[in-house]
From TrEMBL:
Protein name (database record): UPF0056 membrane protein
Pfam family membership, one: MarC
Tagged with keyword Cell membrane: yes
InterPro entries for the chain: Multi_antbiot-R_MarC
tRNA processing among keywords: no
GO cellular component, one term: plasma membrane
Membrane topology listed for this record: Multi-pass membrane protein
Main location: membrane
Keywords, alphabetical: Cell membrane, Membrane, Transmembrane, Transmembrane helix
Compartments, record wording: Cell membrane
Family designation: Belongs to the UPF0056 (MarC) family.
Superkingdom, taxonomy of origin: Bacteria
Transmembrane domains' residue ranges: 12-36, 48-69, 81-100, 121-142, 148-169, 190-211
């Protein structure tokens, strides 16, 4: 019973970490803006493909992330510190409110490209959904929870999270009407604060292990 409770906590923590890193609510206006020139049918297709692709990328990172680190002889502590720094760098513009503006400006500059090409894989699946922060966080999780039961549980969490993203993008127009730009900005800043805390935790945990080995 205790093991089941601990596993559930692990999966909830993993899900919450993905939610903070990816911030699907904050991406709702980005999704709306990028798919503004598509028909509802094409928008639904883009939503499905982008989330399937993002889930596939994260599952691959979860499955072979440890192998990649071993191949390049990178310690998990070093990777956790690098991942923590990367996550903090993503969190800072979320907190000061510049991240979404930068993404919108980038989208506007490439508006012609978005109208001509399929945006499901790039930039929606990667780097907006399965970005560097999400991939780094997933690899870190894979190195600490690498038995088959935990890996299967984390894969289910990734699939559930992708399903949540799909739902949020499906009801994106309704969410924008309810939350408004102010509500989305507030949620983005809260997610940024949680994300920065997560990155700091990665760094502190790794530094403790390194100092313990030195001493």
């Amino acid at each position: 019973m205790n093991n089941l409770y601990l596993n559930i906590l692990i999966y909830i923590h993993f899900f919450a970490g993905l939610f903070a890193v990816i911030n699907p609510i904050g991406m709702i206006p980005i999704f709306i803006g990028m798919t503004a020139f598509y028909s509802p049918k094409d928008r639904n297709r883009i939503n499905i493909i982008s989330n399937i692709a993002a889930a596939s990328i994260l599952i691959i990172a979860l499955s072979i992330g440890g192998i990649i680190l071993d191949f390049f002889d990178i310690s998990i502590e070093s990777f956790r510190i690098a991942g923590g720094i990367l996550i903090i760098s993503i969190a800072i513009p979320m907190i000061n409110g510049t991240l979404m503006n930068n993404l919108v400006n980038k989208k506007n500059k490439n508006n012609v490209l978005y109208k001509k090409d399929n945006i499901s894989i790039i930039p929606l699946a990667m780097p907006l959904i399965a970005g560097p922060g999400a991939i780094s966080s997933t690899i870190i999780w894979s190195t600490h929870h690498n038995n088959w039961n935990e890996m299967l549980g984390c894969i289910i969490v990734i699939l559930l999270f992708s399903f949540l993203c799909w739902i949020l993008f499906q009801i994106a127009p309704f969410c924008i009407k309810i939350l408004g730009s102010t509500g989305i900005n507030i949620l983005t800043r809260i997610m940024g604060l949680l994300l920065m805390s997560l990155g700091i935790e990665f760094i502190i945990a790794s530094m403790k292990i390194i100092f313990t080995k030195i001493l």
